[in-house]
């Protein structure tokens, strides 16, 4: 009897805590959207920012955020998957592997400003990339790799050993087993990690202040030649992202409508992350179904 | 004829070659990461150690003194770099926020995986992922406009301090810890639960005695990640903690963390000067402290395995 | 399928450096100015103005703080280093290698929370507040509210100027610090009994300025040096500027920009100053 009562109590408590959690999250979302959405308009989304008059938009920043996200994910996803595979499938269980793992964990706790300065000195200055999307993307890769790698490793590890044995028994090599059986099976976990990583990229400001920079020069949206200096695709132009823009107008903005722009930009940022999350999840599920044959 | 077969047998098969290639690719990826890690460590360490070797700050003074003014020198001619207030502040907010966030996150994760895997999961999963994407600046501003006045009215003081920092960090690390706990709980094989239920255990007993225990290492990792995020978080904490390099008297007096002082000072100091090196020492300290955290948690996690 | 993805990614990797090389050699010139976040909005606005008039020339303006600006110009990593301070005032900078261009003047004023009914402070009272001797507004005839001092980050140009000209270089008490003006403004606006200081350009109606010894913080008083708390905004170049850097600095100093953009943004045009203040604080009446 007693254990049944405990079961009921525990279930009640869990419901309560989950409810509180939902309330906190809902409060945050509603707070941001309520404050921000009234300032969002088509004009706001498409026009460039103004430096000291009111009426500026966030068009370029929005584009920059997405471009930077894609670029940095293009670099970090393959590296993290490769390293995750190595750590979970190939690495011998010894102190060296543990050392690598621990150092990756520690790296993930570095404050982003340190990563930003590292990126500034290494990518922007030593490598000569200057304040550019590319150095921003590389800095974000450094910032994101630890989390992504650990996530891939954990996801791969959670696949049961029998799947590997089955693959090997079919005469597949280890690598083929990993690529064709383990990764498809672990895909949902990996995708969750990628989405979390992408969210971090989207919201990161401190690592970008010194690398991708805080200025958004006007772009020529009719010229998509990536070598042209004002082309949106040029990876060597400075690019202020949405999160950096929010940070900047909050800290030193002198336009009269700074707080409205900041609230509106925060709301847009959240909606963008939302769309991105759902999109990635949809695509991820699609690939998962295709690769595993489940319905 | 025979030669052909012989050759075929002697030649490496396609699978062997792809295996070799795969090994190399994945090894190279790991090597890239290790290179990045090593170079960052070297980078931070070389600058951080300069405080002690070229600016002649005593290591013990650095850890135990409470006056932080590395731009000027004390009576012995070495920079006044006493980091104790920041060390205390960082530890306080990290531990407090993790202590509050862990039960919340794990309970929510249990709810999402064990109690209501369909509805609860479908609602909470996207929302937690969404919250990770909110920039820390926005968290900071919500903290400034909601948490700080709340603390001021309820607990007195100016509202800026460790308590406000804890609240903000609690909300910030909640999504990360929750979603990683969910992954850890989902990794527990189904038959563990079935076996426990078959033995007549209630759902709560199953959760408590089987699921939580077998996922302990994963949960610990989730908490470490949360803590390391709290530890390294700069912008949001900086907005609400007050940034006073003073030993905190209580939870509502202005304090500072390693990251807040680091972030604030970086742009205002000249690279290579004593003041700048002292900031890098803080970064180095941050690395070392998270190393300690990691080792401790790894030990705990190992004990949780069975 | 996976393999194809890998190959594709490999191509992208190879492609990036190639793009990098070619992008450098395209037409259009750009220079980079880095440093002081207080000067950043101005340089940005003038840069936009310049780009509009001379298409293909980009002025890339970044913040990062005075320290970053001076270290990077000293390294030669950027074209212009923006600074709130004389390079000589910053430790670790060899000012001889740098050329100073004073492009504007900023006035700095103490600001307080609006609920305080205080309009004037004497210098002595101000020093008392910032050194921690005065801890309640009651002590100087205000309401019974504790004083909350919000300072700027150590080494920030605003703080150095304020301590020099308003507090006579006294050692201030260790207290709350913030590194950005926007934050300071928000905190002062929302915290009862708060006092801080900021550049004129950032003052809005959410906070209140105060006079010191009866002198009001206005542009006019700064121009005549009646209001002492002001400083130059500097753009440093390594050696004499050349090419686009030179043209841009000349554009910045042109009467057109000084009289329109500079004053519109709340800075004080350099050509309207009636006095010149030298590095050693010596004053010289120029008009």
From TrEMBL, chain A:
Q: Which residues cross the membrane?
A: 12-34, 66-87, 99-123, 261-280
Per UniProt, which keywords does this protein have?
Cell membrane, Membrane, Transmembrane, Transmembrane helix, Transport
The record's section on InterPro entries has: MetI-like, MetI-like_sf, Phosphate_PstA
What compartments host this protein?
Answer: Cell membrane
Where's the ABC transmembrane type-1 domain?
Answer: 62-280
Is the Transmembrane helix keyword given for this protein?
yes
Give the way it sits in the membrane. Multi-pass membrane protein
Top-level taxon in the UniProt lineage: Bacteria
Classify the main location.
membrane
- Matches recorded under CDD domains: TM_PBP2 (cd06261)
SUPFAM superfamilies registered for this protein in UniProt: MetI-like
Q: Which PANTHER family match?
A: ABC TRANSPORTER PERMEASE PROTEIN YQGI-RELATED, PHOSPHATE TRANSPORT SYSTEM PERMEASE PROTEIN PSTA-RELATED
Q: Which family does it belong to?
A: Belongs to the binding-protein-dependent transport system permease family. CysTW subfamily.
Can you name this protein? Phosphate transport system permease protein PstA
From the broadest rank down, the organism's phylogenetic lineage runs: Bacteria, Bacillati, Bacillota, Bacilli, Lactobacillales
Please state the gene responsible for encoding this protein.
Answer: pstA
TrEMBL record, chain B:
Q: How does it sit in the membrane?
A: Multi-pass membrane protein
Q: Which CDD domains match?
A: TM_PBP2
Would I find Lipoprotein among this entry's keywords?
no
Tell me which residues make up the ABC transmembrane type-1 domain.
87-297
Membrane-crossing ranges are: 20-45, 87-110, 130-151, 157-177, 219-241, 278-297
Q: Where in the cell is it found?
A: Cell membrane
**Sorted alphabetically, which InterPro entries does this protein's record hold?**
MetI-like, MetI-like_sf, Phosphate_PstC, Phosphate_Transport_Permease
Top-level taxon of origin: Bacteria
The answer to whether UniProt assigns keyword Membrane to this entry is yes
Question: Which UniProt keyword terms apply here?
Answer: Cell membrane, Membrane, Phosphate transport, Transmembrane, Transmembrane helix, Transport
Q: Which family does it belong to?
A: Belongs to the binding-protein-dependent transport system permease family. CysTW subfamily.
The free-text function statement in the UniProt record for this protein reads: Part of the binding-protein-dependent transport system for phosphate; probably responsible for the translocation of the substrate across the membrane.
- What name does the UniProt record give this protein? Phosphate transport system permease protein
Species of the source: Agrilactobacillus yilanensis
UniProtKB/TrEMBL annotation, chain C:
Subcellular location, in the record's words?
Cell membrane
- Record bears the keyword Signal: yes
Keyword list (alphabetical) reads: Cell membrane, Lipoprotein, Membrane, Palmitate, Phosphate transport, Signal, Transport
Instruction: Point out the signal peptide segment.
Output: 1-22
- Fetch the SUPFAM superfamilies from UniProt: Periplasmic binding protein-like II
Which residue stretches, if any, does this entry annotate as coiled coil?
none
The protein's matches in InterPro entries, at most eight in alphabetical order, are given as: PBP_domain, Phos-bd, Phosphate_ABC_transporter
Q: Pinpoint the PBP domain residues.
A: 25-255
Could you tell me the membrane topology recorded for this protein?
Answer: Lipid-anchor
Q: What does this protein do?
A: Part of the ABC transporter complex PstSACB involved in phosphate import. Involved in the system for phosphate transport across the cytoplasmic membrane.
Fill in the subunit field for this protein: The complex is composed of two ATP-binding proteins (PstB), two transmembrane proteins (PstC and PstA) and a solute-binding protein (PstS).
The family assignment reads:
Belongs to the PstS family.
Q: What is this protein called?
A: Phosphate-binding protein
């Amino acid at each position: 009897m007693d254990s049944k009562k405990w079961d009921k109590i525990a279930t009640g408590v869990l419901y309560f805590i989950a409810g509180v959690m939902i309330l906190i999250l809902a409060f945050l979302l509603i707070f941001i959207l309520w404050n921000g959405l009234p300032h969002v308009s088509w004009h706001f989304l498409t026009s460039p920012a103004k430096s000291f008059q009111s009426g500026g938009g966030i068009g370029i920043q929005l584009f920059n955020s997405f471009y930077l996200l894609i670029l940095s994910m293009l670099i970090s996803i393959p590296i993290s998957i490769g390293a995750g595979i190595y750590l979970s499938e190939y690495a011998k269980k010894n102190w060296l592997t543990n050392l690598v793992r621990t150092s990756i964990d520690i790296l993930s706790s570095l404050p982003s400003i340190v990563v930003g300065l590292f990126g500034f000195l290494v990518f922007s200055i030593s490598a000569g990339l200057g304040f550019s999307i590319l150095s921003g993307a590389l800095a974000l890769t450094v910032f994101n790799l630890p989390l992504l790698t650990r996530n891939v490793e954990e996801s791969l590890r959670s696949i049961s050993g029998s799947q590997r044995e089955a693959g090997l028994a079919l005469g597949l090599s280890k690598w083929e087993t990993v690529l064709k059986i383990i990764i498809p099976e672990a895909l949902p976990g990996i995708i969750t990690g990628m989405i979390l990583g992408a969210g971090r990229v989207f919201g990161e400001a401190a690592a970008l202040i010194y690398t991708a920079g805080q200025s958004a020069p006007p772009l020529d949206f009719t010229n998509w030649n990536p070598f042209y200096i004002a082309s949106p695709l040029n990876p060597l132009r400075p690019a202020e992202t949405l999160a950096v823009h929010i940070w900047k107008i909050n800290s030193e903005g002198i336009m009269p409508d700074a707080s409205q722009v900041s609230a509106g930009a925060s709301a847009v940022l959240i909606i963008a992350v939302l769309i991105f999350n759902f999109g990635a999840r949809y695509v991820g599920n699609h690939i998962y179904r295709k690769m595993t044959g489940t319905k | 004829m025979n030669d052909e077969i012989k050759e075929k047998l002697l030649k490496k098969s396609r699978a062997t070659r792809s295996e070799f290639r795969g090994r190399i690719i994945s090894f190279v990826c790991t090597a890239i990461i290790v290179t990045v890690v090593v170079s960052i460590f070297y980078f931070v360490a070389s600058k951080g150690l300069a405080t002690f070797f070229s600016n002649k700050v005593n290591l013990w003074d650095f850890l135990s003194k409470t006056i932080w003014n590395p731009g000027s020198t004390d009576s012995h001619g070495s920079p006044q770099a006493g980091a104790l207030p920041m060390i205390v502040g960082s530890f306080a907010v990290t531990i407090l926020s993790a202590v509050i966030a862990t039960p919340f996150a794990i309970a929510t994760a249990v709810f999402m995986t064990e109690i209501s895997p369909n509805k609860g999961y479908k609602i909470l999963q996207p929302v937690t992922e969404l919250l990770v994407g909110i920039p820390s600046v926005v968290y900071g501003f919500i903290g400034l406009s909601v948490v700080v006045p709340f603390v001021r009215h309820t607990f007195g003081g100016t509202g800026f301090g460790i308590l406000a920092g804890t609240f903000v960090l609690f909300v910030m690390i909640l999504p990360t810890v929750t979603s990683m706990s969910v992954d850890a709980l989902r990794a527990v094989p189904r038959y563990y639960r079935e076996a426990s239920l078959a033995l007549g255990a209630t759902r709560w007993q199953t959760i408590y005695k089987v699921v939580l225990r077998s996922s302990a290492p994963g949960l610990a990792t989730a908490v470490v990640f949360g803590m390391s995020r709290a530890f390294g978080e700069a912008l949001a904490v900086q907005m609400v903690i007050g940034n006073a390099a003073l030993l905190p008297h209580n939870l509502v007096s202005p304090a500072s963390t390693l990251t807040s002082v680091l972030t604030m000072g970086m742009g205002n100091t000249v690279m290579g000067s004593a003041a700048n090196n002292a900031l890098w020492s803080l970064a180095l300290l941050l690395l070392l402290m998270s190393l300690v955290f990691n080792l401790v948690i790894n030990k705990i996690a190992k004990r949780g395995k069975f | 399928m996976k393999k194809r993805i890998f190959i594709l990614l490999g191509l992208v990797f190879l492609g990036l450096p190639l793009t990098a090389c070619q992008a450098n050699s395209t037409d259009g010139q750009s220079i980079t100015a880095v440093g002081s976040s207080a000067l950043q909005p101005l340089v940005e606005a003038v840069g936009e103005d310049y780009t509009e008039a001379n298409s293909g020339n980009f002025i890339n303006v970044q913040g990062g703080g005075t320290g970053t600006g001076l270290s990077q110009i000293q390294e030669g990593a950027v074209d212009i280093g923006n600074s709130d301070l004389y390079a000589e005032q910053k430790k670790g900078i060899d000012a001889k290698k740098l050329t100073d261009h004073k492009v504007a003047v900023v006035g700095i004023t103490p600001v307080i929370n609006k609920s305080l009914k205080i309009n004037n402070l004497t210098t002595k009272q101000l020093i008392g507040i910032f050194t921690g001797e005065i801890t309640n507004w009651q002590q100087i005839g205000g309401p019974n509210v504790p004083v909350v001092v919000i300072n700027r980050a150590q080494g920030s140009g605003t703080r150095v100027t304020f301590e020099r000209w308003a507090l006579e270089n006294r050692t201030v008490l260790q207290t709350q610090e913030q590194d950005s003006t926007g934050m300071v403004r928000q905190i002062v606006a929302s915290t009862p009994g708060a006092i801080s200081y900021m550049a004129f350009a950032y003052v809005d109606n959410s906070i209140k300025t105060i006079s010191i010894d009866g002198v009001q913080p206005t542009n006019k008083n700064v121009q005549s040096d009646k209001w002492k708390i002001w400083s130059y905004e500097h753009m440093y170049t390594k050696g004499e500027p050349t090419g686009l850097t030179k043209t841009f600095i000349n554009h910045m100093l042109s009467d057109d920009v000084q009289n329109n953009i500079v004053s519109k943004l709340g800075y004080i045009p350099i050509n309207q100053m009636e006095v010149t203040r030298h590095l050693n604080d010596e004053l010289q009446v120029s008009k």
